[in-house]
Design brief:
Elements lengths: L1 H12 L4 H31 L2 H10 L13 E2 L2 E2 L5 E7 L6 H7 L4 H8 L16 E7 L4 E6 L5 E8 L2 E8 L2 E11 L4 H7 L4 H10 L15 E11 L2 E15 L2 E9 L5 E4 L19 E4 L6 E2 L4 E2 L5 E4 L5 E3 L4 E9 L3 E8 L3 E11 L6 E2 L4 E5 L9 E8 L2 E3 L14 H28 L1
Antiparallel strand pairs: 1-2, 3-4, 4-5, 5-6, 6-7, 8-9, 9-10, 10-11, 11-12, 13-16, 14-15, 16-23, 17-22, 18-19, 18-21, 19-20, 20-22, 20-23, 23-24
Length: 447
Amino acid sequence: MIKSQATFKTDKKQSINPKKIIFSLLAIGFVFFALRDISSVDVQAASDGNSNNHLIEDAVSGELALPPTPLMSFSEEGLAGSEQVIEKVVTIKSGQNLSAIFTDLGLSQGLLLRIIGLNDEARKLTKVYPGAELHFTLTHDGELNQLRYPFSDFQELIVHQDMDQLSTEIIEHTTQVQLVSTQGVITGSLFNAGKKAGMSDAMVMKLANIFSWDIDFVLEIREGDSFNLIYEKVYKNGEYLKDGEIIAASFTNQGDKYQAVRFSTADGEAGYYAPDGRSMKKAFLRAPLNFSYISSKFNPKRFHPILKRVKAHNGIDYRAPTGTPVYAAGDGRVISSAYHKYNGNFVFIQHPNGIVTKYLHFSKRAVKKGQRVKQGQTIGYVGSTGLSEAPHLHYEFIYNGVHRNPRTVKLPKSEPLKKEHMTAFELASKPLLAELDQMSATLVAQN
């Protein structure tokens, strides 16, 4: 009995409190995790040097390690919280003005006045023209952020608005000019030959305009006529923009060869000159309009289709659509501008040296009696008034009271370059003329 009792007392003293057990376990766990975190520092340091390799390996395997939380958040429209912008491009129409454009875009007239009055650069906007483009950048709530106006092929005005503060800058675009050459032989029309030579219609017209004082490009063009030219191709920021100027050209018409070189004098005036330094521009144009075709050649004994009898036809009829502009063939003074039952609406111009030109059958006259006119100025529009079968211009050239054939009459020579310019002209033109001659020789050999 005594032994058993003693044992019982001993067990009772050595029993463990449950709260102490829980506390001990928590302490052991804390020590364990602390030791594990300390050891992980070395592991992380060792792995840092190879982190880029892990990223590369993940990218190659197609698996990209992502951070546990995103660095940025995105919305369907773009970066969450970023300000959205709206781009608007307005092409100026005839009669449209800036005030109406700003109203259409919901921008205030006050803002427009602030922009226009900002500085000389901003005032370029007052000279916008039909066909020009205005590029607007608006904020999500419709406020102006930026306005871009390309006011030339190579310059652009930019108006900025930031925190209600306006500023401007002019951007100069990088341009390059490349000289190219081409040539052609006429087998049908000049335009078809130009197309085969890789020329645009505008470039063909430039070529014709250079020689328009010497050649009638409808009546005098023949199969086998040829041309050579050196001209510019203009590039903007490395991309083709447009054709530039013709630098030199030659045209062989019915065996007669004409050459022209573009030359700028010291005062910046540019023009085309023959090899002897005389301007290609003469006192009179061979044809006073850009015509579609000519219905009647010069013939003093022509049978008149309406009067049914032979009637002197002392001029040329240029058949063209109603409304085609007609130009003054040379400088002069209008001595008559009226209507006649036979001539219809007509204009007569007195020129120096006893020359008078007459223009008949206009649909509408654009000048009045006594008015001074310049060569190339519009004096009327093709029509079919008076004794006329169809829309056309009847053109006469009278020298000292005698009718002359406008196609063959000898015209006054133009003035040559001044002596102080001739040395520079010869220096500039010599290699270009040599190149044209070489091109002509090659073209002859090929045909």
